[in-house]
Structure prediction request, 247 residues.
Amino acid sequence: MIEIIDLEKSFDGQKVLNGIDLTILDNELMAIIGKSGGGKSVLLKHLTGLIKPDKGSVLVDGVDIVRLSGRELDGIREKFGVVFQGGALFDSLTVYENVAFPLKEKVKIDRKELHERVLRALEDVELLGMGKKYPAEISGGMKRRVALARALITEPSIVFFDEPTTGLDPIILNSIHRLIVDTHKKYGFTGVIISHDIPEIFDVADRIAMLHNGVIVETGTPDEIKNSFNPIVRQFIIGMEVPSFKP
Prediction:
């Protein structure tokens, strides 16, 4: 479980996170939605320990990672897999080498087992046979699949997705969402998805959290969010004109 408690962060005097409270349950897919520039990626960086908050806590399985540094934080991060925005592949490495990279860095493993696990990961994302290609030789959708395979290769218990479908056409976008759902069912990880894909994300996530003006204004199932009476939520998902409202 991930528990975020009263998280605050400012940059140059501007408050970005203004008291975030959110609980993400074991093995669920939680999507965090909200307008661009609203702090979603900043929140994600706190969850992975890349940024320290001005105030508050981030508990991962009961351990407050805000208080950790060095080897202790690295130990917690071994539970994490991350799918970065755009894929963030190493251009000088093949698809196979990109997927293998986390295993080589984090785990003592013989060559045969490494090979078997990389092939299995590529098969899971429907890219078996593409291992010798370089990122420049594959499509944007394939790059996201490679990034997903790389994130899953160490079999993490928590996977963070930073807008994994940005810039993709609707058909490829839906195929990536399907892969996220399928791999989640297979591996059983806890997933946190930063997304602006409305309404497509409602078919992916178990629960949705809406971030607005630095706070979570509503959390619920996709149906609960779609039927919300909160004017901020309604304006975001269906573009309704509503009166000014602050939580």
